[in-house]
Amino acid sequence: MSRTTKLGRSRRGVLLSLGLALPLLCALPSAERSARAAERVTLAVFVAKDSPLQNLKMTELRRIFTNADDSGFSGQRSVPFNHTARSGDRVGFDQTVLRMDPDEVSRFWIDRKIRGLPGPPRAVDSLSALLRLVSRTTAGLGYARPHQVTNDVRVIRIDGKLPSESGYPISFNE
Amino acid sequence: MRASSVALSVWLLSRAGLALAADPSPAEGAPSAAVEPGAAAATPAAATPAPAPAAAAVPATTPGPTATSAEGDAEGKFAAAPEPVVDSFATEEGSSDSDTQRKLDLYGFADFTYQRLLIDKDNVWNKTYPSVNSFAVGNFNVYLSSNLGDSWRALAEVRFMYLPNGATKPDASGNVVRTDTTVLDYAGFEEPIRWGGIRIERIYVEHEFNGLFKLQVGQFLTPYGIWNVDHGSPTIIGIKKPFVVSNQLFPEAQVGLQLYGSYFLDPLEIGYHLTLSNGRGPVEYQDFDDNKAYGGRLYVKTDVLGSLTIGASFYRGGYYDRSAKYVVKENGVDQAYTPISKYQELSLGADIKWEYNSWLLQGEAIMNQANFENRPRITAIHPPQGFQADYQRWGAYGLIGYRLPVVPLMPYVIVQHAKSPDSPSTPPATAYEVGINYRPTAAVVVKLEYTDWHFSAPGAVGFGNYPLRILASQVAWAF
Q1: Interface of B with A in 334-393 (CB under 8 A)
Q2: What CATH number is given to the structural domain containing A105?
Q3: Are B96 and A109 within 8 A, CB to CB?
Q4: How many CB atoms lie within 10 A of CB B26?
Q5: Does B418 reside within a domain?
Q6: Could you tell me if B388 and B400 are in contact, meaning their C-beta atoms sit under 8 angstroms apart?
Q7: What is the ipTM of this complex?
Q8: Residues A135, A61: one domain?
Q9: Which of A92, B249, B327, B362 could form a disulfide with B353 if both were Cys (CB 3.0 to 4.6 A apart)?
Q10: CB contact (8 A) between residue A46 and residue B35
């Protein structure tokens, strides 16, 4: 009798564990996914060390990366360098700064070129090349994750904030 | 057994813990002091160039990842990125390296159209409306663009056409004469082939002095309104140009100079175009009366609430056509000119374009007035015959569209009205159009459009007595 009771308790324990485990097992992949989806990415905008640029508004950054010419009388245009299309940080940057998804970005540049206007900023396919280009171009402008930025370039403020400060505008969920 | 259950639960919880740990706070990804530009930037002015402060280059007090490791991480990320979808459109624009800029960028667009008239068989439009019930490649435009370095840029756009083959024109006795370009191909067995034409849409070289002054010399599209500059079939929403645009109340293109520029006065972009050209005439590269045309456009654009652009344009110029004949004079041979047509014209236009979220609203209103000095004789099959009177033609259109959120599809509605007293056979007309613009990829557009024309008068030859309903479809692509 006691043996039967022990066996019954053991079975109940197994069933209970399974009952707890199964929902957790089912929930786990989605929890991992959402954990990954919720990863917050911040992008730092950087310039050459000898660039006089210290701060940009988001509207100004948007205009620079859509090749709008705001050089005025000075004629000194910023030279933006982009990541390759559809790379994760490019998509996030475009959505945050340009407020466009990848398809909208493609449409934007195709339409612009058919209108006879200059095309998109140069896309650089490696970070080292991007950093090198920006560091050697006084008017150059690039972006990358803060830990990827080297001392060859200088991070500027966006809307008065650095990437480490709360309220920094260029951040998105990866 | 209990122990195994507990072990399972612990393992599951540890997995969950790992999953949670994989979600770093934003601060973890934030830069260390290594990227702190220094105290000099503590109170930055918006985009205000400041003297390069020594503090800006302050070395890292807390070194972050080394350059090598950062590069390694990043290289992996960049390498994992798929190929750009806009490869052919990704130029070296903006590069500081003038050597890499000096490359030829070749691209273009084309379209394929099929249209049917939804009218009775005895309706005269069946015989006069162009390309009815036919498959047609309409535009095949190729762009050649190049940055020439030192703020010089060149652009050429040419259209390859089947024309003049098949073009028709009525003669004085009412016969419709068709152009036939059939020739025998000497490169083969002299099989018959038809040659087509090339139309120069625009070709210019541009120098940028600064953001306020950019000068184009060559042939350029007249900078008025929206549709004339949007220009390409993948870019424009509808299939056919609104009549007020296709009727060229402003000349579509001009040969001469264009000065343009813009200034950003946050949140407004204010821009202008000024043109000086040969003006409208029978020959693009010759101004018979040395009477230069001038024009301009002023626009204001803001991105505060979507993207809103409001513009106004004008054009003033003369048209002069003449015939010439060699005559013998005392001192030799000379040419005697006889004016065929000569008039002064003024065009005015206003336009608005507003893109807000997925909505698009655009409209243009255009007026053109001509005052003749030498009136041409009207070539009309149906009386009254006579001489061209001064005229004022005008028209407008409005377009509203909404791009759906999931499918890249934009249903749209266009309403347009046009009055062209210069062409007596064309009665005042109003059209209602509904259509869809489907863009499965950024470079391909599929359009379907239904147009219902209503005429408020019969016109000189009675076309206005017949209803005109058109169902058109088009595939347009950029390459």
Answers
A1: none
A2: 3.40.190.10
A3: no
A4: 15
A5: yes
A6: no
A7: 0.75
A8: yes
A9: B362
A10: yes
Number of folded domains that form chain A: 2
What 3-state DSSP class applies to B98? helix
Residues 439-478 of B with CB under 8 A from A: 439, 441-443, 478
Digit-coded pLDDT (tens) for B147-196: 998 889 999 999 999 999 999 988 877 788 999 999 999 999 999 999 99
Nearest CA-CA partner of B347 in B392, B381, B316: B316
User: Which of helix, strand or coil describes residue B414?
Assistant: strand
Of B2, B26, B78, the CB nearest to A87: B78
Mean pLDDT of B208-214: 94
Question: Are A39 and B23 in contact (CB < 8 Å)?
Answer: yes
Token pair in block for residue A78: 């910023």
Tell me the nearest-neighbour CA distance from B163 into chain A, angstroms. Answer: 22
Range of the domain at B216: 104-478
- In this prediction, residue B101 has a pLDDT band, given cuts at 50, 70 and 90, of low
Query: Residue B173 domain-assigned?
Result: yes
B88 occurs within a structural domain: no
Q: If pLDDT is split at 50, 70 and 90, which confidence band does A151 have? A: very high
CB B26 within 8 A of CB A170: no
Spatial distance between the Cα atoms of A130 and A136, rounded to a whole number of angstroms: 10
Q: Which of B84, B91, B94 is nearest to B107 (CA)?
A: B91
Indicate yes or no: CB of A102 within 8 angstroms of CB of B85.
Answer: yes
What CATH code is carried by the domain that includes residue B153? Answer: 2.40.160.10
Note the pTM of the prediction, 2 decimals.
0.77
Are residue A93 and residue A154 in the same domain, yes or no? yes
Residue A87 domain boundaries: 40-173
Residue B56 has pLDDT above 50, yes or no: no
Number of domains in chain B: 1
